[in-house]
Structure formats: C-alpha cells, structure tokens
Amino acid sequence: MLSQMQETLISAPPIPADPDFPNAPIGWSRSDAEHLARQEGMELTVEHWEAIHGLQEYFARHEGMPTVNLHELHDALDEHFHSRGGMKMLYLLFPGGPVAQGCRLAGLKAPEIAADVHYGSVA
To answer: What is the DSSP letter of 18?
Structure first.
C-alpha cells in the first residue's frame, strides 16, 4: 500500500523544466529553441519568446482535442499582437510562418496545413 506522500507525488503534475514556460512540452528547452532559431537564421527577441510562450499556452489549453484549429490559433495570435501590428508583425518575426515556424521553435507539432511546405507561409 502506498503512503499518503507517495500517492501525492504520483498524482502531482510534473514540474516544468523552465518555470517561465510552464506549458512547454516535455524535453523542450530555451537553448534548443535558440539553437534551432540560429539554424534558421534568426536571433530570438522578447517578442519571439512572447509568441513561443503564447503558442505553448494555446496548445496546453487545447490538449486532448483531436486537432488544433489553425484559424482559431491564427486569430488568437493576431489578436494578442494586434496593437503591435498583428499578423504583419508576426510574419516579420517568423518569416517561415508564425504558426509553422513558431511551433517548431516552441517544440510543438504545427497543424498540418501550417506544416505543409506546398502551402508556403500561410500560417
């Protein structure tokens, strides 16, 4: 029989590796994102990190759903960054697409249409 403390530890949610990114996928790290960004010719700024944090939060809120709604995610990003130019600003930050490239850097699997290179930078 498990003690009360053992039961609590087993049922407790995992502690995030990075407290500033509590919704980050397991195994994701800022240093991995920075390395990937450098490979893609980018230097991550405060705005990049804000978008990465937002993407991770969005996916965490929609965890367990069969698919992520690309249009809803696109609209959520646009609304959050609206005062700074919305999607126009996000495309400047993420030339590979705010959803597709942003998800890669956030350690997330982008919705299928956003990850399909035949569609270009639609997401």
So the answer is: S
Q: Is residue 100 part of a domain?
A: yes
The larger pLDDT score, comparing residue 28 to residue 67, is at 28
Residue 83 lies in a domain: yes
Tell me the pTM: 0.77
Q: Which domain holds residue 54?
A: 23-119
Count of the separate structural domains present in the chain? 1
Which residue type occupies 47?
A: E
Tokens representing residue 88 in the block: 């126009």
118 contact partners, CB below 8 Å, separation of at least 6: none
At residue 50, the pLDDT reads 96
Q: What is the pLDDT of residues 31-76, one digit of tens each?
A: 999 999 999 999 999 999 999 999 999 999 988 877 788 888 889 9
> CA–CA separation, 120 vs 20, rounded Å?
32
| Distance of alpha carbon 41 from alpha carbon 54, whole angstroms | 22
Residue 102 lies in a domain: yes
